[in-house]
Amino acid sequence: MSASVRLKELLYDNTMASAPQLVQRYDDGRVRCLACGHRCVILPEHSGVCRVRFNSGGELRAPGGYVAGVQIDPIEKKPFYHAFPARDALSFGMLGCDLHCSYCQNWVTSQALRDDAAVARPSFCTPERLIELALANKTPVIVSTYNEPLITADWAVEIFKLARAEGIACGFISNGNGTPQVLEFIRPYVCLYKVDLKGFDDRNYRKLGGVLENVLETIKLLKKMDFWMEIVTLVVPGFNDDDEELKKLAGFLVGVSPDMPWHVTAFHPDYKLTDPPRTPAATLHRAYDIGKAAGLKHVYVGNLPGGVGPRENTFCSGCGKWLIKRRGFIVEDNRMKGGACPFCDTTVSGVWEEDPPKHTAGDGMPLPIAVVSERCG
Known about the structure:
CATH class of the largest domain: Alpha Beta
Number of strands: 20
Strand content: 15-25%
CATH topology of the largest domain: TIM Barrel
Shape: globular
Mean pLDDT: 90
Order of helices and strands: HEEEEEEEEEHEHEHEHEHHEHEHEEEEEH
Largest sheet: 9 strands, mixed
Number of domains: 2
Radius of gyration: 20 Å
C-alpha cells in the first residue's frame, strides 16, 4: 500500500460535513462542491480535484480536526506589509490543493494525496488548542496557509469563530481560485486575504490546474467585499517575466485598486521545476518599475532580503517619506501609527494599529510538528 493511500485512509475518518453554503446536492446522489473555482460535481464515493473533499453517500465531506503544520513568524512572511507590521502571526495549514504548480514551495502539504512523495504528517487537534497557542504567544493574527485554505474553509471557520471572539484578526493565504459562495461563507471571520496571482496568461494558468479569469473575478469580488487584500506574483524566468505580461497584470491591479500592494518575489528552483535559474534582482526591479508606472502606489520586491535596496520599504504616496523600513521579513523601523502618514496626513490603505511595535521582536518561533502534536493531543 502506497504512503498516499495510507494517508487517504487516515484522513477519511477525520473530516466534517461541508458547510451547507458550499454544497449543492442532486437527487441522484451527486454533489457539487462550491469551495473553489473548479466547482466539482462529485459522484458518490469519489473526491474532487483537490482529493480532500469527497462525496460520502451523498454528503460532501471536508477536512477537519487536524493541522499539517503550525508556526509563529512575522506577518511580513505571509506576506502582508500593510497589516499589523512588525507583529507575529500564528500560521496553520492542512493538506491538499486545487492546483498542481510544478514550482510549489509547500508541495509536501499541498500535493498530499496527489503525489506519493508528498506525505506530510497530520497532527490532530481542536480549534480551542490553536487559539490557546495564539493567545499564549500573543499573536494578534492567525492565518490559514501552507495548503490552499479555500478547500479547507469549513475547518478554518471553526477556528476563526473562536479567534474573532478573542479579538484576533484572521486571514487566508490563497491562490485566489474562489467562488462567491466561499467568500461569503468566510467573510464574517476573515479580514485579511493574500492572493497569489501567478501571471496573466491563461495558457500557463491551465498548466497549473487553474483558469486565469476565475482568479481575476475572485480578486475583484474580494475588493468589492472589503477584504484587506495584498497580491503576490512569484516571477519565474521564462514563465511570467516578460514585460507585456507584467504590464497587463499591473494594469489589471490598478483597475481594481491602485492602493492594493503588489509583491513581486524571486523564484528559486523547487519541486518539479528545477531548470529555470533563480530570479535575478534586475528582473524584480523591472517588475517594480512596471507596477509603479502603471499607477500602483505600493510595489514591493521580495525574497532577496537586503539585496534590493529600499524597495522592501513602505513609502508615503503623498510626500514620499519612508514609513516602514524592512530587511526581508524583519521590520527595522516603523513610523506608522493609525492609517495616515505622520508627516503629511495622507491616508495609507491597510490595517494599522494606533500603537504598533517599532520593529520586529525576532525571527518568529517555529513550532515543529512533533511539538504541535504533543501540545494538541
